[in-house]
Write a structure and sequence with these properties.
The complex is a heterodimer of chains A (about 475) and B (about 450).
Chain A lengths: L1 H13 L4 E17 L2 E19 L2 E7 L5 H21 L13 E5 L11 H16 L6 E17 L4 E19 L2 E7 L6 E4 L2 H5 L3 H17 L1 E2 L3 E8 H13 L4 H5 L28 E4 L20 E6 L2 E2 L20 E2 L8 E2 L4 E3 L6 H6 L3 E13 L5 E13 L2 E7 L2 E5 H6 L1 E4 L6 E10 L4 E9 L1 E9 L4
Parallel strand pairs in A: 4-6, 9-19, 10-17
Antiparallel strand pairs in A: 1-2, 1-5, 2-3, 5-6, 6-7, 6-8, 10-24, 11-12, 11-16, 12-13, 14-15, 17-18, 18-19, 18-20, 20-24, 21-24, 22-23
Chain B lengths: L3 H13 L4 E17 L2 E19 L2 E7 L4 H16 L17 E6 L2 H5 L2 H18 L2 E17 L4 E16 L5 E8 L7 H14 L9 E7 L1 H15 L2 H6 L19 E3 L21 E5 L2 E2 L6 H7 L23 E3 L6 H6 L3 E15 L4 E14 L2 E5 L3 E6 H6 L1 E12 L3 E17 L2
Parallel strand pairs in B: 4-6, 8-13
Antiparallel strand pairs in B: 1-2, 1-5, 2-3, 5-6, 6-7, 8-18, 9-10, 9-12, 10-11, 13-14, 14-15, 14-16, 16-18, 17-18
Classes of the chains: A alpha+beta (about 475), B alpha+beta (about 450).
């Protein structure tokens, strides 16, 4: 394999490319779905191929090829990438410049204990079917679901600057959910989070640590109780959010907002831009001093982790917001030149057939000093929301609205009634500016979002987020009525 | 694309590796995409990828496996994996079996060889002058210019074989001005030569300049004129939340138990029609059944959902598959992919002229469902939101957040345009522009 990649690079240089990189990816996935106690499907997929990216006269070209056995096809792919770059160069007036990076030869693998692809399929199905059956036993539960997803990917990366990197990752995820219907009133509860559960770097031990079977009865009870719950009030009040909801809040209003390619206008036609324009770098109050957000592309259990990104740049720990002040972007080699001239290892591509673009690796909200109990007990009137059900944010990451599966009123420092259809809306810097506290490390947990979409053609990326709970004052809740 | 002859051979080879009943689905295609940002081509991508999915049924035990390679060893491994998965499963009582068919469906009607083979240098050369003009006007262009082909083929051990190919060319154009104006234009066709980048540039530029220095408008209810991309966004949610057979049967759909009831204004008639012009719809579904044109909503009355074999069986003897199955196993059930909202008699200019005070909306962004049972949605306007006063567009507006239900919107329709446009939805939808009263906004963008 390495010889094929080296020959592809040599050919690109022979054709006059100023720079080239090649990436090989071999991906295996297993996806299991259970519904109402029966197997809905087990799907396995394997794919592999090579993507070639070249710079010619300061413009990019990219071509991909799944056929690795035919050297002529490989050379033709390289030729096409060069031809595309040449065509772009003819209409472009500026020249792409790449910031420096170290030349690296390395080999890295993520850690796991139990290979999920070696675990008996019946064992996996049995766990999900058991959970489904337990949830179905509760009167009022109409639909139950369970899922497991496993992926392992082997990647080779090489470039004309001399780097040669081999990386292997193994990730596992699972989730259960149930639904209850009463007329047009539909409620869902999910665990550990909605939309096929939580995902982490690691093997089957990730699934075993979730205690899915133990959590199933609680979910089923709650989903039925939601029908009798009060409607989320419509007013401004304190809001505490946690778990997968805080994950989405960080993801949408911070993670995407600090992507430098959006800021520069390269995603303006599709994903959008960002209110965090270049003039705001180190010159803008993003949140209260309780807010510390950072990228850590090396968090061992997070699914956005690797040792190097898809440009061969070491993955890093980078501050994005320090004590409320906006201090950093996510950057690739061609965008970093517009900030401080160093990539922070955030260029990623889905598989072999896509070009690397600026992506989140893992974006974390640093834990604070308070306990969750202290956040609740300091709240006179507020609401606690968990488990995302809906999200929407504008193309500049400014105005957002979220809905969760469940909420609880907080009155005089204590959790009281369950509320249904909880929603809240806000303006990103105002919302984070009203952050009164972040729960401590005891509540901090790493979550995985495997469905982050960006780019054209759409690249679905696996992103990690570490969060605990956070409290925000004067939030407009109950906005969808 | 993989030619018809090669596809038949490939299907036969894949099926030969299974000792059980089996089905093969081949999907994929070739595409070229130039992405534009800051008045430059910043990504120029060529890709070709195909996937083969092998389904094996051992009685009522079904397994699936797929790969992106067609060599003998890999097809054999994929078939064996599917058999292994099937052997570990319990009987699926709802498994309908593979579809037998006497009539093979071969559809190459919307294939333009020129669209696939177009020279990227020629294509981009058209953009150079546009970039220069944009720079001279001090505006920034972003966009995506793509063309290529897509195929779907299905064959099984019951002698069913279907093949569908089409080409597609697409151009989306955003323009931003230094004074906060934004504009949008898009066009899609199966022929690259139908796309006129200069005309799209003019449309987007006109919108961007007209929306400069946008004003803020207070939250509340307004008469709105939704341009076709905004209407297409709404239909997308109807497709998977409302008109699918699975949520209908399970009681999760707004339309559950409402067959024959008048639910929307009588101006609203919706069909799913894979055969309409420029829909590029596949004439068969992923069970191998012929796709039918289905009347979903007639003059505001809900008629029926789309069905696959499983959902039709669950509904009873009076129902048969409408040919809308997705690939097994489908977590969502059958979905309409080619919705068409019937046109009216109006046009956008008349709608504006007849509006005393209202808002013209180019498109929505990041819409999402809040309550699926009520079809309630939220989202933001984007790329051209305008205030209308006394029959004229008077200024641009900052983007607005809406919170609405589709039943409310479709009951408050004032008029629909005579002209319709083919736009992307779950698959591809054909929609008119729409004027609606009492549309609710509860937030403002930056």
């Amino acid at each position: 394999m390495k010889d094929i990649l080296r020959k592809a690079l040599e050919h690109a240089s022979d054709l006059g490319a100023n720079y080239a990189d090649v990436r090989f990816s071999h991906l295996e996935t297993e996806s299991i779905s259970v519904k109402n106690g029966s197997v809905l499907g087990v799907d396995c997929h394997v794919d592999w191929g090579i993507g070639v990216r070249v710079l010619y006269d300061g413009a990019w070209g990219f071509a991909s090829n799944p056929d690795l056995d035919d050297p002529e096809r490989m050379f033709k792919t390289v030729q096409r990438a060069v031809d595309l770059a040449k065509a772009s160069a003819k209409v472009n007036s500026s020249i792409v410049k790449l910031v420096d990076k170290p030349k690296v030869t390395d080999n890295w693998s993520s850690l796991f204990h139990r290979d999920p692809f070696e675990i008996d399929l019946e064992q996996k199905l049995r766990l999900l079917i058991d959970c489904s059956n337990v949830m179905s036993m509760v009167d009022g539960v109409c639909i139950t679901k369970g899922s497991m997803d496993f992926m392992r990917e082997k990647r080779f990366y090489m470039d004309t600057e001399g780097s040669e990197i081999e990386q292997k990752v193994l990730q596992s995820g699972a989730g259960i959910s149930c639904m209850s219907l009463n007329g047009n009133e539909v409620h869902s509860r999910s665990y550990p989070s909605s939309f096929r559960g939580n995902h982490q770097m690691g093997g089957y031990e990730v699934i075993e640590s979730m205690n899915l079977r133990e959590m199933a009865p609680k979910l089923a009870t709650e989903v039925v109780q939601l029908h009798r719950a009060k409607l989320c009030p419509s007013e401004k009040m304190d809001l505490i959010i946690g778990k997968s909801q805080l994950v989405l809040q960080v993801h949408e209003s911070c993670g995407h907002a600090v992507e430098l390619d959006r800021v520069l206008g390269y995603e303006a036609n599709f994903a959008g831009t960002s209110f965090l324009t270049l003039d705001k770098w180190k010159n803008f109050t993003y949140g209260s001093e309780k807010v510390n957000l950072y990228q850590d592309g090396t968090t061992p259990e997070a699914i956005g982790s690797a040792k190097y990104d898809d440009e061969g740049v070491p993955c890093t720990n980078t501050e994005l917001v320090r004590e409320g002040q906006f201090v950093g972007y996510l950057k690739s080699r061609d965008s970093a030149i517009f900030e401080n001239g160093l990539s922070n290892g955030a260029a990623r591509a889905q598989g072999w057939k896509n070009v690397p673009i600026v992506r989140m690796t893992n974006i974390h909200l640093a834990s604070g000093d308070e306990t969750l109990d202290e956040l609740i007990s300091s709240t006179q009137r507020g609401i606690l929301m968990e488990d995302n059900s809906s999200w929407s944010i504008d193309d500049r990451r400014w105005n957002f609205q979220f809905a969760t599966e469940i909420g609880w009123m907080i009155e005089k420092g204590k959790i009281t009634d369950m509320v249904k259809y909880p929603t809240y809306t806000g303006i990103t810097p105002n919302f984070w500016g009203n952050c009164e506290g972040v729960a401590n490390q005891d509540e901090w947990h790493v979550w995985g979002t495997p469905h982050c979409g960006k780019g054209q053609p759409m690249q679905v990326m696996r992103v990690g987020h570490g969060v605990s709970y956070a409290k925000f004052k004067e939030v407009r809740v109950g906005v969808s009525k | 694309m993989i030619s018809l002859g090669n596809t038949k051979q490939l299907v036969r080879r894949a099926l030969s590796h299974s000792s059980k009943e089996a089905q093969v689905i081949i999907t994929g295609g070739k595409s070229q995409l130039a992405r534009i940002g800051k008045n430059e081509v910043y990504q120029n991508i060529l890709g070709k990828e195909y996937s083969v999915k092998i389904q094996v049924a051992d009685g009522k035990r079904v397994g699936n496996s797929s790969c992106n390679r067609f060599d003998g060893d890999q097809l054999k491994e994929t078939a064996e994996k599917a058999e292994l998965i099937a052997s570990h499963q319990d009987n699926d009582p709802s498994w309908p079996g593979f579809c037998g068919s006497n009539e093979s469906i071969i559809d190459e009607n919307f294939y333009s060889k020129e669209t696939v083979d177009a020279c990227f240098e020629d294509k981009l050369s058209k953009l150079g002058k546009i970039f220069e003009d944009a720079k001279s006007k001090g505006v920034e262009i972003a966009g995506a210019f793509s063309h290529g082909d897509q195929m779907k083929a299905l064959g099984n051990t019951k002698d069913c074989f279907h093949y569908h190919v089409h080409t597609e060319a697409s151009f989306t154009f955003s323009i931003m001005t230094p004074k906060g104006g934004t504009g949008w234009a898009e066009f899609h066709s199966h022929k690259l030569k139908d796309i006129n980048p200069n005309r799209l540039y003019e449309v987007a530029l006109e919108k961007a300049l007209a929306s400069e220095s946008p004003k803020t408008i207070s939250e509340g209810e307004y008469t709105v004129i939704l341009e076709p991309p905004a209407v297409a966004s709404l239909l997308r949610f109807l497709a998977y939340l409302g008109f699918g057979g699975m949520p209908f049967i399970e009681g999760r759909s707004y339309f559950s138990n409402k067959q024959g009831q008048k639910l929307f204004d009588e101006k609203i008639s919706i069909t799913d029609n894979a055969f309409q012009s420029e829909s590029f719809g596949c004439p068969f579904d992923m069970e191998g059944r012929k796709r039918h044109c289905v009347e979903l909503m007639s003059k505001g009355v809900f008629m029926q959902p789309v069905l696959d074999t499983v959902t039709a069986q669950k509904l009873g003897r009076n129902f048969t598959s409408t040919g809308h199955a997705l690939a097994y196993p489908s977590t969502s059930g059958p979905i309409p992919l080619n919705l068409a909202l019937s046109p009216g008699e109006s046009d956008i200019e008349s709608m504006i002229r007849e509006t005393k005070r209202g808002i013209l909306i180019t498109r929505f962004f990041y819409d999402n469902v809040i309550d699926p049972g009520k079809l309630s949605l939220t989202g933001m306007t984007r790329d051209g939101t305008f205030l209308i006063e006394n029959g004229k567009v008077v200024s641009g507006l900052k983007n607005l957040r809406y919170n609405e239900t589709i039943p409310q919107i479709f009951n408050n329709v004032v008029s629909l345009s005579k002209q319709t446009w083919s736009l992307r939805g779950m698959g591809r939808n054909r929609v008119p522009a729409m004027k609606v009263e009492g549309f609710k906004f509860n937030g403002v963008g930056e």
